[in-house]
Design brief:
The protein has 354 residues and is α/β, with parallel strands linked by helices. It folds into two domains: 152 residues, Glycogen Phosphorylase B (Rossmann fold), CATH 3.40.50; 185 residues, Glycogen Phosphorylase B (Rossmann fold). The chain is 41% helix and 16% strand. It contains 15 helices and twelve strands. Strands 3-2-1-4-5-6 form a six-stranded parallel sheet, with helices on both faces. The chain is globular, with a radius of gyration of 21 Å.
């Protein structure tokens, strides 16, 4: 195996992908690699945006954070300084092996500039010529297998692809203060809703979310909307049409606080997105709403989850997506189908507790 040589003293594992969902799905492989490499010095390079997620992972150390957001928001001169500082950090590891789990643009360059004589990634990486060890990935399987396959090729054994996250007490205390400020009661059940997504073709209709939110509120649930700055318009469009009270915490929570909210929620309802994967990792029951994306590759990694999609998916969707205006594969999803799934999942969750 690659890592059996006595000459290997230091290993760098890179996961610089900017998508929260990818990062969460990769955690089982990251943790397995960390344990497998415990007799060697193992450095882990992540996007700094996910610092609060990493703090919820047991046993991770020697972390190097890639300041992606800070780089993008800075002047050209400062960008160069920040990037060179990051490259200097990974070069200072003097790693014998660089393991790039994603094989994206940023990580491929970082792998090359790390100075590692052995560089590992998948065979479909953006710049495959950078790597002298390339791993063939399975086709048609969940994205988690893309990461576990690389780890397994190095000799790692991964029996369980799910990785469970537990929010820290510090983030939970911080969240509790926010909930108190908004008048959210701790004794009443909470449903967290993420109505946005990175792409319009992943978003269920505003009307659908309005109907489900009013229904949940009428059933006694406190519905809390979450998301980032780019989700605020969608949340506002829903909130202004509601007949029942709901709560808007869009762009108000850090990732650590978001995990704490999911941890106390009876249910997560949302589109195929990073928060959906985060909720699944926390152990929250998940109803995921999918459009043209293949749920076999991106379903929530939880046995306590349901995936729904509309009935009018187009044939050969990937080719037609640019010309599609209403994305019937998700917009045709009926609220009654969502209500039924929520009711069944909540009932199943309660039965498991008994």
């Amino acid at each position: 195996m690659l890592l059996e040589s006595d000459k290997i003293r230091s290993v760098l594992v890179l996961m610089l992908d900017r998508h929260l969902g990818n990062f969460v799905v990769s955690l089982s492989s990251i943790v397995a690699l960390q344990k497998y490499l415990q007799n060697r010095t193992c450095y882990l390079a992540f996007d700094s945006n996910y610092r609060e997620v990493v703090e919820a992972v047991d046993g991770l150390n020697n972390m190097i954070f890639f300041p992606r957001t800070e780089i993008y928001k800075s002047s050209l001169a400062k960008r160069i300084v920040l990037y060179l500082r990051f490259i200097n950090s990974i070069r200072s590891t003097y790693c014998d092996v660089a393991i790039d789990l994603q094989g994206g643009n940023a990580s491929s360059i970082a792998s090359f500039l790390s100075g590692a004589p052995r560089r590992v990634s998948n065979s479909s990486a953006r710049r495959p010529y950078i790597y002298n060890i390339r791993v063939e990935l399975p086709v048609g399987e969940h994205k988690v297998r893309s990461y576990t396959k690389i780890a397994e090729a190095l000799g790692v054994t991964i029996d369980e692809p799910y990785y469970r996250l537990y929010p820290s007490n510090h983030r939970t205390e911080s969240l509790n203060k926010i909930l108190q400020l908004h008048g959210i009661a701790f004794h009443r059940p909470i449903v967290s809703v993420h109505a946005g997504a990175g792409n319009i073709h992943k978003q269920w209709t505003t009307e659908g979310f309005v109907e489900i939110t009013d229904w949940l509120a009428s059933e006694g649930f406190q519905v809390i909307f979450v998301g980032t700055d780019r989700d605020l318009d969608k949340i506002k469009a829903i909130m202004t049409r509601l007949n029942y009270k709901a709560y808007d915490l869009g762009a108000a929570l850090s990732l650590g606080e978001l995990m704490a909210l999911f941890n106390m929620s009876a249910l997560f309802l949302g589109n195929d997105s990073g928060p959906m994967h985060l909720a699944a990792a926390v152990g929250t029951p998940v109803v995921g709403l999918f459009g043209p994306v293949d749920e076999r590759r991106w379903r929530p990694l939880s046995q306590n989850s349901v995936v729904l999609r509309g009935e009018n998916a187009c044939e050969d969707c990937r080719k037609k997506r640019k010309d599609c205006k209403d994305f019937p594969c998700i917009t045709s999803l009926k609220p009654d189908k969502v209500k039924e799934a929520i009711t069944q999942l909540l009932a199943s969750t309660e039965s498991k507790k008994e």
